[in-house]
Amino acid sequence: MSDVIVKSEPLTYERNAPHSFFLDVARASTLKDDDAIKRLSRHAVETRTNPNGTLGTGGEFSPPGYLIENFATAAKVGRNFAELIGSQPIPRGVSTVNIPRFIGTNILGQNTAIQATQGATVTEFDDTTGYSTSAVASIAGQLVVSQQLFDQAGGPGYDVMAYTELTKDYNAVLNGQLINGSGSSGQLLGLANFTVPGSNTTSGAAVPATTTTMIAVLWPLMGQVAANVGNNRGHRPEFWLMAPRRWFSIAASLDNQSRPIASPSNTAPEMNSGPGPHAVANIMGIPVYTEGAIPVGASGATADTIYCGRSGDMYLFESDPMIQTSVTAGSGTLQVKLLMHRYAAFVGNLYSSSLGSVTAIPRPTAY
């Protein structure tokens, strides 16, 4: 008799599995349900996670993979800028993230020099060091639903809806923080509040609001900002970041011969099925990305900011999403509380010269 080799078996929690991830967390936490605890333990092994605390006490678990597949379904501001930067795991057990760096005064080099002759003294330089830091922000939310919904809903449909809603809201809040965060009261420090060299930013208040005359004033300002990022950082910018309304007003602008300023062949998004944000075009050889979080920034809905910077000089850290479920038995209302939280840190100002902006641009008419 030949040996039987099992190559694969269904995961504990899949899209069409008979058990609900959230309901099992609730049952393990409140009822000490042995079957739920076993399923959660098996899921932890499948996903290589380590629950916080003892299984069955409401510990935190990584969500099933089929839930993660649904991240892109909610109609909210996405995480376009977060994906442009790229994310890496946040270290556990820290309240701040520090990135050490050397502090230089000459982008043409200062630690080394040409050796005048063989045997001549090699340049010696005492380095100045420092670090850029970010507090670890907590982004959390909860949904309160009826016990009947958990008990009667066909599994695992409600898992998908609940987790997708919480995750998409997290993405919207995170992206808003990366753009507009104040750096105080638990917030991350976002682009709008970075301290940058004076030459890296300019006011666009004089830009006309009508697309027929907007480009003549706006275009030189964008060129000035991009040039000064390159001058001060020593490397060319890697992105333009602007509100969708700003990009489409640029794309729709015509010159005095009624020709489009932006070539029609250069205004379509990249038809790329891969992950991450896709540039809608390029301006001055720099990719353009649209960002829905910009209109809700400090300048309000009547004015825009266009950012120009280097994503390679920015660091985003995120924890895995953590889930808890609790039954509010004491309230007598048969309700279940679903909680999700994640931690994030953003060091985007490692080099102050890596970012430039055209600020206070009047909102384009009819956009």
Structure report:
This protein is α+β, with helices and mostly antiparallel strands and 367 residues long. It has a domain at 78-96 and 132-142 and 170-321 and 334-367. 26% of the residues lie in helices and 22% in strands. It has helices spanning 21-30, 34-46, 65-68, 80-85, 147-152, 157-180, 211-233, 244-251; strands at residues 87-89, 96-103, 128-135, 137-146, 201-203, 239-242, 281-283, 286-290, 303-309, 315-318, 322-327, 335-347, 355-362. It has a six-stranded mixed beta sheet. Strands 1, 4, 10, 11 and 12 form a five-stranded mixed beta sheet that branches. Helix 1 (21-30) crosses helix 2. The longest helix is centred in the middle third of the chain and has 24 residues, at 157-180. The protein is globular.
Salient structural properties:
single chain, 367 residues, alpha+beta, 6-stranded mixed sheet, 5-stranded mixed sheet, 13 strands, 26% helix
Summarize the structure.
With 367 residues, this protein is of the alpha+beta class.
List the helices and strands and how they pair.
Elements: H1 21-30, H2 34-46, H3 65-68, H4 80-85, E1 87-89, E2 96-103, E3 128-135, E4 137-146, H5 147-152, H6 157-180, E5 201-203, H7 211-233, E6 239-242, H8 244-251, E7 281-283, E8 286-290, E9 303-309, E10 315-318, E11 322-327, E12 335-347, E13 355-362
Parallel strand pairs: 1-10, 5-13, 6-8
Antiparallel strand pairs: 2-3, 4-12, 6-9, 7-8, 9-13, 10-12, 11-12
